[in-house]
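Need Alpha-2,8-sialyltransferase 8B's 3D structure for a figure. Predict it.
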Amino acid sequence: METSLKWVPATLVLPPPRRRELVVGAWATRRPARQSRCRALRSCGGCAMCKWSSLPEPWLRGPVLGAEAQLSRSTLWGSIRQGACRLHGKGPQRPATEKRAEETWCSRSVGYRSALRRAEVVINGSSSPAVVDRSNESMKHNIQPASAKWRHNQTLSLRIRKQILKFLDAEKDISVLKGTLKPGDIIHYIFDRDSTMNVSQNLYELLPRTSPLKNKHFATCAIVGNSGVLLNSGCGREIDTHSFVIRCNLAPVQEYARDVGLKTDLVTMNPSVIQRAFEDLVNATWREKLLQRLHSLNGSILWIPAFMARGGKERVEWVNALILKHRVNVRTAYPSLRLLHAVRGYWLTNKVHIKRPTTGLLMYTLATRFCNQIYLYGFWPFPLDQNQNPVKYHYYDSLKYGYTSQASPHTMPLEFKALKSLHEQGALKLTVGQCDGAT
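Structure prediction for Alpha-2,8-sialyltransferase 8B:
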């Protein structure tokens, strides 16, 4: 008799004060419909919910709450048998119910037990079929030095581009265009849907009429992150040789040119940068510093995510006003309202369970549309480098960051793991040490 496969997910909910949601799933055999099988799986589409009424003490103290982990088969099934986990089910045959595992509809389901045996655990939105260690230890020997042979996999790059095009088109989504909005239009913020902003006259004036990347294509692109791993890398000259260079969050370049280069074709500017790097323009000195940085862009694309969260509204307006008042030579771009969710959707579909994509991941996803080969620099979400030397969060300041903090909106180590995998397959080049020719 032919047997098919079905994904069997379950959600484990830890009670307060250590509330966490874990999604458990695995491939389990599903017999053809004419054969008897678990009613719960049939009636609720393969979904069962577990509520943990209690957990062994090591679970409350252990790493499972702070990072991805592979759920112990014996611990999970043992907890279910002991009544620590109660299964919920809804279906037309029976109202919602809660019973001890031995009494539940699926207690003798071979398929469900098989699912538990091969369970893949996703904690706080991240998944891996094996243990995913967010510590620096798991990564320190995994990236080859820059001098190691790397070969571009053009077939894979083209396949990735086609896949991403199903979710977004960078040429269109890189910016809202002037013809789509007018002054006074109301926009709901992406992360604060209950809050709105009105399109100001200044914002309208700076909206591009056509996409800044319309009909653009480049042989090689460099995306320069801001990790301190760039310091003493000597990558500046190599970065500047690329056809198109993308930088993040108005990071300074002049005093770090040897390591990060000078060339800039597109630079992002999160509104929070105005607070963090330019003291919210509290006086003329800080306004002049920002103005000098903007003038140094000299015709580059300035990419401002203006519609993300309400807290950035004033800062976006300050920057827009400066650009117009001083006639700064930049090409402004304001990402479309759908871009962030489209990017996240692509990565989730490919089983990279990120929270909110970082600027670096956004830029890589966009770059696949108009770059033949993509080179990443300054991507390193760990406090130590491969030689166990301390690494600053940013190469240009002393800001601290908790890469594995549950409060972080990003999942940087998980993103890095995905990018490392693409590096190993030749879809992109990831440089985390010294560049060739560095002295």
